[in-house]
Fold this protein.
Amino acid sequence: MKSFWLSLLVLVLVPTLYAEEAFTLHDGDRVVLIGSTLIEREQRYGYWETALTSRWPERNITFRNLGWSGDTVWGESRAGFDTPAQGYKRLLDHTLALKPTVLLIGYGTNESFAGAAGLPRFQKQLEKLLDDLAPSKARVVLLAPPLAEASRWPAGKVDERNRDVRLYTDAIKQIAERRRATFVPEFCQSYGPAYPLTDNGMHLTAFGYWATSHNLLNELGTATGRSLETIELEGQASVRVRQKFLPGPPVPPEADGAARQGDCFVRARNLKPGKYTLLIDGKAVYTADAETWMKPGGFGVLVPTGPSLEQAEQLRQAIVAKNRLYFYRWRPENETYLFGFRKHEQGQNAREIPQFDPLIAEKEKEIAKLRVPVPHIYELKVEKKP
Amino acid sequence: MSHRPDLSLAVRRPSQGRDGPCLHYGLVIGFACLFAPSALAQRDAPVPDPDPEIERKALQVAEGFEVNLFAADPLLAKPIQINFDSAGRLWAACSESYPQIKPGQVANDKIIVLEDTDGDGKADKTTVFADGLLIPTGLEPGDGGVYVGASTDLLHLSRQNGLTGPLRRRVVLSGFGTEDTHHMIHTLRWGSDGMLYFNQSIYIHSHIETPYGPRRLGGGGVWQFRPETWRLEVFARGWWNPWGHHFDRWGQSFVTDGAGTEGVNPVIVGASYTATPGESRVLQGLNPGHPKYCGCEILSGRHLPEAWRGNLLTNDFRGHRVCRFTLTPEGSFYTATLEADLIRSNHPAFRPVDVKMGPDGAIYIADWYNPIIQHGEVDFRDPRRDVSHGRIWRITAKGRSLVPRPQLIHAKTTDLLEALKAPEDWTRHHARLVLKERGASVLPELKVWTAKQDQETARLEALWTYQALDVVEPKLLTSLLQARDYRIRAAAVRVVSAWHERLSKPLEMLAPCSADEHPQVRLEAVRALGRIPDVRAAESALQVLDKPTDKYLEYSLGLTLRELAPHWLPALQEGRFATRNSRQLLFALQAVDSHAVLRPLVELVQSGKAGASETDMLVFLAARGGPPELALVFDRALSGTGRSCDERARLLEALEQAARQRNVRPSGDGRRLLPLLNEAHERLRMAAARLAGLWKLEAARPRLVELARAAKTSEAVYQAAVDGLATLGGQASTEALEKLVIEEDLSAASTAGLSTRRRLALIALVQLDAKIAARHASALFASGGGQPSGDDSTAASLFEAFLQRKGGAALLAAALRGQRLPPDIARIGLRMLRSTGRPDEGLAEVLTKAGGLTFGARTLSPQEMQAMIADVARQGDPKRGEAVFRRKDLACLKCHALGGAGGQVGPDLSSIGASAPVDYLIDSLLQPNKAIKENYHALLVTTSKGQQYSGIKVRETKTELVLRDAEDREISIPIHDIDERSPGGSLMPDGLTDTLTRGELLDLVRFLSELGKVGPYAIGPQGVVRRWQALEPTHAAWTFLHLGGGLATPAKDERDLQWASVYSTVAGILPLADVPSFSLGKDKHAVSLIRCHVDVTTAGPFRIRLNSTKGLKLWINQNPTPVKETLEANLPVGMHTLTFVVDRTERREGLRCEVTDKPGSPARVRVVGGK
């Protein structure tokens, strides 16, 4: 499976050739994600948000995920005890209340089960949704719904399913073009993954989110310069380097080693023959012989662990924790008692819910700190022969 | 500390033991020592001594059984669901963060695995399989790990090496609702078919993306999921909290409900049960009036006594009981009879929530161990909530050997196949699961083994194994469709349904089954046909009408016809639908909610071929049709030929419903109705009068006024006439009604009859001009009128009329301001007002002042509450309290039932004492709005016509909302009339206890606190008559008894007789003091007439047992029956009346009557309860 991480790496490293205008997030941006299961589950894994966050380490960008499993452009999953129309209103109210400057919208998956017959209804409603969200003046990013994954699809002919998905994708694309919104083409299956991204042909696994986070940046045209840095070392001299960006977080273990994520690349000059161990901040991380350090293929020796990688994982964990706290805040359990028709029973407990706000703010401070790479000292040390 | 995300689970290893509990133990014990003498610091629910041995001693186990502690804290805390894996290890889903995560708290709920490695009946090894979860509410081991229902997700957790190695966490399905944490997905079970079943409760809205399209379920129900194909479907809908589900050995499933009060529910595939949102066609459980149940297990195996095998166990967690039912097939369905409990206890924290058979043939009970049971009534953060304890109890039969633990995991495939013949359900079930996990590799051996089996039961197991492996095996299936045992045929039919897309001729396979000799097979066939999208499926299903049916078969047929409507309706319109007779066609047409049925139905009526069902068809047309169809109904109602007056009246009433509920009237000239206002037949004339108003027939007004004013008009017709005037509306109607009010006033309001008319006119006037009406009402109330002969109903109904009018309360308040009212009138007004659950617009203050009353909700300070709790324990007397509870002025039983007998407005109180702390009981009495029981919140509705209603929602469909009001009446409100709805409070009025002395209140609370606890106030067995009807001392009754003399025919003609409900005490005795008596003859011989009803569902001999025969005469239906302490009856299927004449001079003691089985008899008899 070595070829896989290499192919992935290539995708990460080669500046994108597809996107014409690079999409940028600005300092102070509030990104609100809406959509169905694809969006909802992202918050549990956080790979996309981590990639977008660490892309602009100097900018303060905050994310709020309002995805809801099974949702559609009608806001069907949000109706609760009320009518579908109120579910839709809730979708608008929740989104607008967050004062988004960027809307990342991932709909179409559930709607596409209605096939060609359902398409006009979908188009009309997506337009309506965008109209109704227009007062936010947010920049809009429309994601194509993921294609079904042939190797895992359990429900009949995958081609038939994907025909419908493409039908809806085209509709979303046309609407995006007409409205000058950013359209993100399918970036899961169309990247030809060598390892499955889903386990039911439909929903990204943790690995799926990890793998596609690179693709997302790529399709947004923002992957430029977002590659792993190559640290150049001269002999055994130590250098202090602050990487420009954090690397992506480590690969989730379920990928069974099918892909790897490193801390950085290292390339050295002027080494005498022998085995050399790379120390980062004095901590041994990787050993190879001089030949390898000096004449590695590609961009250098991929260093498999290191403090930047650890920091990236800490960042992701902080993002996941923040998202979880926010989930408790906006979609708390026991809503029936806290705010619904049983609030006269246990509504007094609703006072706890705003107490999540300071906890979320605290997490965001942590995220702001963690997204910025810190300098580390890199050096090669020769191994004494035994 | 910040929240730790779930992902880090992957790097956590299971930890052994924890450091907290020991410390906690010490604290709890110390606490108990300090405060035990007064037992007050924690009010009445002192944290009990957590020593498991103390709890064990408090468990009273059924004769012949014993209980031992299998596992306890600190090994596990708060187990919610338990399930065994095929290796015999017991898995438990444990939640300490229930009911709600605290801000800043790190969710750290666990999946625990308990092992009894040395087989001594005690767990000796505990593994924390996973932690960091948020409220896991259910689990089921399988597929190399465990499926866990946790909040929004169904997860699959696994570890590389079984219980060790890094944890893998997969989200299998997501999007389950969390609106109420004890409703989240729960009760995970592998079915006989190898599919994973799990349930959700009523307030949950789930939206799940699947590769087959989104699946949505709002409300309770059972999900069915095949992990290999990711196919998720709804298996059945409904219930409040279906916290129990199990399959019997024939693959039939049974559900118990933790909030509905209907006991055991056999499941018909695809059916809707009680409390399905938006569905009016629902099935009920088998045991109305039962307490809430949690968990469900069907017993089997050699360890248990034979009589217990096939029994169903479930837990009355409120009443600290483990309950047992015998299940008996009856017709296409079952009966479930409550037997003596397996366990009962008074330990306040014993909360059995799950029950499972173990690999050793013993019974395992998960004890949630908590003095507080849920979070609707008691604050999320109530300090009495236990978060650290939990027990697993093991129950064995004394002197019977245990079953050798089956070794399945490493068994050879041939041995696993042999295990499919084991007598224990546990072994067969797990052998099948292990075979399933081995996958296709077992198929060759399965084939060889199956060919060798000639026992039908073994072949059924083989069929299920194929189904679990998802491999279609038509030959085996076909052979089992011919099985001798109907239960196996029924099971095979269900497999046809599952495989129909992959079978070549499913319709041909099912057609003979819908004509099977056994109704259960016919029922399965009807449901299986519903899945086959073909007009011939509907034709086959309708065959069941050719054989005797019952309500379950008819329900199933209706459901199937609705599912197949897209196929047979167009065929019908094209003349391709082959029904054999008009009965089949009418059934099909009535089953569907489609306008497409109207035309064929009209044609059928017009053809004159409808025969005896023509009136039924017309009523149906009136209920669904538009103006042209209604015109046909109207025509038939007008013409007197070939139709009785009652039938014609029925048609007019159906038109009335159409006008009221759907706002539709017949096309054509409505004035053709006018002549009917002169009809001699009263019912016809009344219906015409009401319709004239609804249809706004101006020309009818003079005749309506005339009808009202004619002295000889009966009260009923008078009411219809003033109703007609009120709905007709207009200034002229207002004037006419006001005139009627004034005239009635003038013509001596002294007799009850006239006063009733005045009230009726006034109520009608409220609808037209509440301001004028308020002026008259105020005068009437002030004069003491409206309350003749001690009867509250006159004043009450008048108050109600104002309260149901938008702004009516304010207008009445304005008119009453500064008046003096008789205190009782004011009391009635306040009671009515408070029972609406609405803001009072100033009326309460006016009434309180006008009546010179001091009233209101009372709150107690913490000190007062403590003092009261102490006094309840010290001074409260449950016996006196029961007398208070039964007092007529408190009318407790009007709204609350005990053992299913009593009103249905409020919760059944049978086990309230066992579940609710005393402070909760006191609060509920003094401030009914403080904590309202689950499912008992009023809904306030305002209609576009300015009417206001409040009540408990019974059901809601596309066309109507049905509420149950404080008077226990069902009110149907057309959806299109609803302007506004809002949540209200309790229907239980504040100030109910104002008339009680403190002593009486203490007694009442003490009585309530004893209800359901082991002792004299536990509701006894099912067969006791708890709801009686007593003959009311009306003039008609008196005349009847005088003329009847010898009381030869007490129930022959009861048209004018009034019977009022009276209820037995908790002990099951009807005190005669509560029953009116009549003095007859010269010697003033005092007698009472009381009766009760029994519902016979299977005919056969049964027994009626009386506490004594003294002074009793008995009629069963019309037949005098000699009275004996135990007498035998044998009655046909249907409702029957037992009427007792009690000689009051001879009999002083109360009456207890119990219906019991006669051993060996098939009879099924249920005593009718309710209001």
Summary: The domain at 17-220 of chain A is CATH 3.40.50.1110 (Rossmann fold).
